[in-house]
Amino acid sequence: MAHAVISCLHANHAALEAVLADIDQQGIDTITCLGDLVGYGPQPNEVVELIRQRAIPTCQGCWDEDIIEGLNACDCSYPSQLAERRGHLAHQWTAEQLSEENKAFLASLPMSLRRDRLLFVHGSPNSQHEYLLPNMDAFAALERVETAGADTLFCGHTHHPYVRELRDGSIRVRVQEGVASGGPSVEREINLPVRRIINAGSVGEPRHGNTNATYVVHDEATDSVEIREVTYDVERTCRAIVESGLPAIFAWRLRHGFEYAERADDASHVCER
Amino acid sequence: MSQTLLISGPPGCGKTSWILNRLQNHRGPCGYLRLAGYPDEGLAQAPDGGIDLAYLQDQCPRLLDLTDLDQALAPRPEHLLALIELPQFQSPAESGLGGVDRRVIPQLEALHLRPDEHLHFGRDTALPRQDTLDFSSLQAWQRNLAGSVWDPASLSSFWFELVNGAYGDVYRAKALMNLPDGRAFFCNWMVSQEGSQFLPLQTIAPPDCRPERLSRLVVQGKDLDPGAIERTLADCLLSEALPHPSPAA
Amino acid sequence: MARWALISGLRGDLEVYEAIQEELRQTRRVDTLFVLGDVIGPARNCDALLSRLQQPRRGELQPQCLFGWWEDQLLAERGYRGGRRADALRLSQGETAVDALLQAVDPGHMGWLAELQFGFIELDCALLHASSATVEDSLGPDSSPLLLLDRLTRMEVNRLFTARSGQQFSIELTGGGIESQVRDLEGQRHQQQSVPKRQVIGIGAGVNYTIYDPGTDRFDFLTAGSRSQERARGFA
Fold it and tell me: CA of A247: which chain B residue's CA is closest?
């Protein structure tokens, strides 16, 4: 059975419609959403309502959390003062626009979803704010999947779709215990399991070099993963950004395939708040 | 033997870079003068606001400012290389000194300057060939940034947006920008060349107070949106409390 | 270069602290004393020890202290951690333990406790109560090497000194590697990564403490008041 995983919709209704149409066209009826339904984009209510209407199982993203709990991310999640000011502006606008019912829906979302040995999270199993980048330390990446008790971890948050397989891992250690046991040092080697991280990219705010929405399809029968790119009516969303009173620079950035705010430099940073 | 050169060319053709190169390669004393230029039909000359002189003086600390009347009246040092920069859109009708815009002559005479040679970018083969663009109308916009200090990461984002057209079709942008650690950068971009230059000034301002040196942004282009630039600037410049603490600290 | 003494888990026991200070006074070339948290606990009144840490006697090493799990619980319960309370303690040891902890520390010490840091980075070593992940993370000789490597990687250090488990141990990562294959819209990339040579050292708790010589990378696991001192060799 093939299932689709979407993430980071960012209130971009045209992009979500196009992606859902692409999924429907393939006859796929299991969809999982990894959060960030809102933030920066102009149609937060429409996007939340479409996800609710389609009854798509969804876990909570960092924007979804911040909108209902007040700004929760620390300043370090923004790479610059400019990005932070724009982020706060988008936050305030979105919080004003979202209906109470839709806020309640976002508040009800779980931090993670699990189906057998598949785990679905927004950022990482540790935090909605942690970025699992494709080039992060391979042992640290494996640790995230392994500690969470999964074989395959689906995540989003980076807006960069990728499939990463970690295999043939081993670690040798020399262990020495202290006064209590007093024994000599012991050497041992452990073999690490094969694990996989699949990042679904972003429906509403691509960060992969062009304006296409991205998501992934996982075929469990063949265990294959396809990264899909979908064109959508970018101008429709850009017009809506300007008409809604959001900063015009958001439309310019979306139109050129640049994310609204670059991610923080320290990708491994976990917000302590 | 002293030499006085008049260098002209359209904005962004590389006059200042060429001049800096000549100044750095000259062993004797050097002087510099930047003339304002004259608006051509529909083409605004961007006021440079002293950016070029400030940058060249930083790079060549003993550079004489030829606008200084005291120096104009003093005997010229031997082997002086005097370079005069003149923004000029159109290629002169005549070659050599005959092509010098007559309007600049009285200014130069008042400063006791008489060019031995006139070189124009796009006309004279002694100068590097640049892709000078054909443009029909040009706006200029500038902002005095004296005392302003940039959040470095925000400067990088803003500059990226500026030169990639987020605030209008920018043909040329140059600036002197202060950073919280006391450094300043000469930022330079022209549409005909790939990439931006970010050149650190050699002089460092004390990091515990607002820098007093010249700081300015000059933009030339079409359909510029100064309001949007101003809004972004407001989000990029640091408020009081210097140096700005890094969030990671 | 002089040596470091690393202690933890005093839990209000001034006598043990004095015994360690006395040994350090006699042991030459120890110039820095790190106290990796858990200076308080619910079992006894901690005020005398807290006062001493803040005002060392003449001839004593000035302690450099971090907060540990017990300090974190107290700070939470006293409202220094936002909305969080001492839930972990309440869950594991009940309301009585929370009350006992509140009783064990005079509120006058809260300002000093609230100023304590989470960790120190010294040279290429991280000194932490637990790990870079949380103050609760108990690393020991049986911890998964993958987990240890992750904790070392997060801090970008070669050595991590930890105290939370209370055990004295050393785990050196000596070899191994992993293959990684990434596919994205640009294509496929293959990467081979080796296990870096790094080490996690458990410094012990209470009377058990550790001396570390950063110059030679040697450490000794010691027990205050014990003559039989086992020596462990660090890697050169």
Answer: B228
